[in-house]
User: Which sequence fits this backbone?
């Protein structure tokens, strides 16, 4: 029985040991394997579906109708057409009529984003302004291009009673055909100024709008030059920020502390001053009046409000000072990471071009997406509008879901392209960090990272971008509902919608940060998305205070960098535009330049931010699994090594201080024991 018990007890293991996972072994850049292959296949099938939608619109004539145009009776311009059942004037031969002409081109529906006018196919756009119906008749007789509805003969335009409904609105402006889409568009921009006036509500004068547009057109060379200046300043800042990061961080820290102390002091001073004034006023009122109850209550409410503000500011300042006290050593890590990030851009200068490649890829995809969306707008079955009697093409039945599929594709593929940028940057930075001898770096680490991404990790990127898509779609739907119900919903519903939108936005930002670190973990260990996200999350949790310091101090320093670039560009713009005395209206060009400068600075410094985050993850892994002993040497840069050595020295000094404080107590106890020893022996 004892042997049986012994065997059963030896075979029995506690439940905790069953569920205990093996410790992750980080092996940077050693093994490579395909990750998340099912998600790569799913994403490929999704892309096939997107291409299928484009092919469907081309095969059903939507693309042809968009390019060549069609009239309000369902006839495509420039070709022979088949008749549509129940629609008169359909099935006409428009081989010689290649241009689309709108009877009232300036009647634009802003909400529906289309021209509310009858459209006809004509053989020639009006090359001059036509002020009367006799001018319309003369133009039809000379050029053979009839600008009224097809059933009206051109030589009878001035006498026909239907001319007011089925002929163009007078005067007919001079028009030119668009290069590709064969639409007759007015040459005079005053027609578009009405549309712009309706959209841009702050413009109340057409002359002001015309002057602003003229100012942009006249100063286009300066705008291009200032945009290039913002580009150069962004690239320079990424290199020199390694040298000014320490100064920026400590100045920022001092300003935050002084600002919080100053604000708290001012609130307490206001409260004390108001309290003293209130006491004097109340004493005076009690002498003069008998019932100052309402005034006293209002005065006390104001004083109580100031007291609440002062106490809240004091609590905030105290928490802030405690955080600064505990995180002062971790600020040094942020400075070291910024320093190393500057070195990364020196060794890998092509990293600075990543925003260009990403922007180019996004631009090409967005152009394709908009083109297919326009194809979808002219695809479907012809339907006659009972109110206007005109023909519109609409998707019906299951085909209308293609638009939703196409919309999801916009979000998922855009997020996929951005995730590819993050994975590419992470792969290059990981290669730099975990290569001990920097002279043995690949000739093109960026290209090597791209090749690894394409060969092994497209499935991981597809999965991570799909998770972001799942969060972004509900947020966009709620934002659309909120805009549609603006002014109609009650306060409770509005508050709930805004709360849900805010929560989804916060969740999206958190998932973006976790995804970025998961891509870095995949670049290091070649693990799938879920494993990489779990490993990265555990590393971040273990270094939570460091993460908080880097994301607060570091992000604010980068934000100051963006403001610096915008300010310098705006200052140069003011000098350049003011120097040209002919440019009296240069507010709009300056706004355009500042927006472009902020966009460029954001794109470049976001790459810098990704580099800092990936460097921190590599540093955390390096310090966790290596200690600098032979066989477990650090991979980190000298700047980070100095930070580690300083941290060790400070920890050693703290331990020595604790041991010194503990020694006197032990000596006192020993002397007390020795003093008691003779008494006990004699007893």
Assistant:
């Amino acid at each position: 029985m004892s042997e049986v018990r012994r065997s059963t007890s030896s075979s029995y293991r506690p439940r905790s040991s069953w569920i205990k996972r093996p410790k992750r072994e980080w092996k940077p850049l050693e093994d490579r394997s395909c990750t998340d292959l099912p998600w790569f296949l799913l994403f490929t099938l999704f892309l096939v579906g997107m291409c299928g939608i484009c092919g469907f619109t081309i095969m059903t004539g939507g693309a042809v109708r968009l390019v060549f145009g069609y009239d309000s009776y369902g006839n495509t311009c420039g070709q022979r057409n088949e008749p549509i059942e129940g629609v008169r004037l359909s099935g006409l031969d428009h081989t010689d009529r290649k241009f689309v002409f709108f009877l009232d081109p300036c009647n634009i529906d802003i909400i529906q984003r289309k021209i509310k006018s009858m459209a006809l196919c004509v053989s020639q756009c009006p090359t001059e302004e036509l002020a009367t119906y006799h001018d319309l008749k003369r133009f039809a007789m000379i050029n053979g291009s009839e600008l009224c509805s097809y059933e009206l003969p051109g030589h009878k335009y001035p006498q026909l009673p239907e001319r007011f409904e089925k002929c163009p609105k007078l005067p007919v402006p001079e028009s030119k055909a668009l290069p590709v889409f064969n639409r007759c568009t007015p040459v005079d921009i005053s027609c578009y100024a009405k549309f712009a006036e309706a959209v841009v509500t702050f413009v109340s004068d057409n002359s002001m709008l015309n002057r602003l547009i003229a100012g942009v057109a006249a100063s286009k060379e300066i705008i291009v030059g200032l945009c290039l200046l913002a580009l150069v300043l962004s690239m320079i800042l990424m290199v020199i920020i390694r040298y000014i990061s320490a100064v920026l961080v400590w100045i920022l820290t001092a300003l935050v502390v002084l600002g919080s102390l100053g604000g708290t002091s001012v609130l307490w001073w206001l409260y004390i001053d108001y309290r003293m004034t209130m006491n004097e006023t109340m004493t005076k009122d009690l002498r003069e009046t008998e019932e100052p109850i309402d005034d006293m209550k209002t005065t006390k409410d104001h004083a109580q409000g100031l007291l609440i503000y002062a106490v809240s500011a004091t609590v905030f300042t105290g928490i802030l000072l405690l955080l600064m006290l505990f995180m002062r050593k971790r600020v040094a890590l942020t400075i070291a990471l910024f320093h190393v990030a500057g070195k990364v851009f020196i060794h890998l200068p092509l990293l600075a071009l990543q925003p260009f490649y990403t922007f180019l890829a996004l631009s090409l995809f967005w152009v394709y997406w908009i083109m297919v969306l326009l194809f979808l707008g002219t695809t479907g079955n012809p339907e006659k509008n009972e109110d206007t009697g005109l023909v519109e093409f609409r998707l019906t039945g299951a085909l209308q879901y293609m638009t939703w599929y196409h919309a999801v594709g916009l979000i998922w593929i855009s997020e996929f392209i951005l995730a590819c940028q993050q994975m590419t940057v992470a792969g290059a930075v990981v290669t730099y960090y975990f290569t001990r001898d920097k002279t043995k770096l690949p000739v093109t680490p960026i290209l090597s990272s791209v090749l690894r991404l394409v060969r092994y990790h497209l499935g991981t990127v597809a999965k991570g971008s799909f998770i972001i898509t799942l969060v972004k779609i509900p947020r966009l739907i709620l934002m659309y509902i909120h805009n549609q119900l603006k002014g109609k919903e009650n306060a409770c519903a509005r508050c709930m919608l805004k709360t849900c939108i805010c929560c989804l936005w916060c969740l999206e930002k958190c998932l973006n940060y976790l995804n970025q670190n998961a891509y870095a973990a995949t670049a290091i260990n070649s693990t799938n998305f879920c494993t990489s996200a779990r490993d990265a999350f555990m590393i971040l949790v273990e270094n939570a205070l460091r993460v908080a310091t880097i994301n607060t101090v570091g992000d604010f320093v980068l934000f100051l960098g963006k403001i610096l670039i915008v300010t310098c560009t705006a200052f140069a713009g003011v000098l350049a535009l003011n120097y040209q005395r002919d440019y009296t209206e240069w507010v709009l060009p300056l706004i355009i330049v500042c927006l472009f400068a902020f966009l460029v600075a954001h794109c470049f410094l976001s790459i810098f931010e990704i580099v800092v985050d990936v460097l921190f993850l590599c540093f955390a892994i390096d310090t966790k699994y290596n200690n600098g002993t032979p066989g477990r040497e650090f991979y980190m840069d000298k700047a980070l090594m100095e930070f580690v050595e300083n941290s060790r020295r400070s920890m050693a000094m703290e331990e020595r201080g604790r041991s010194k404080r503990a020694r006197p107590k032990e000596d006192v106890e020993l002397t007390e024991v020795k003093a008691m020893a003779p008494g006990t022996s004699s007893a």
User: Anything to note?
Assistant: The mean pLDDT is 77.
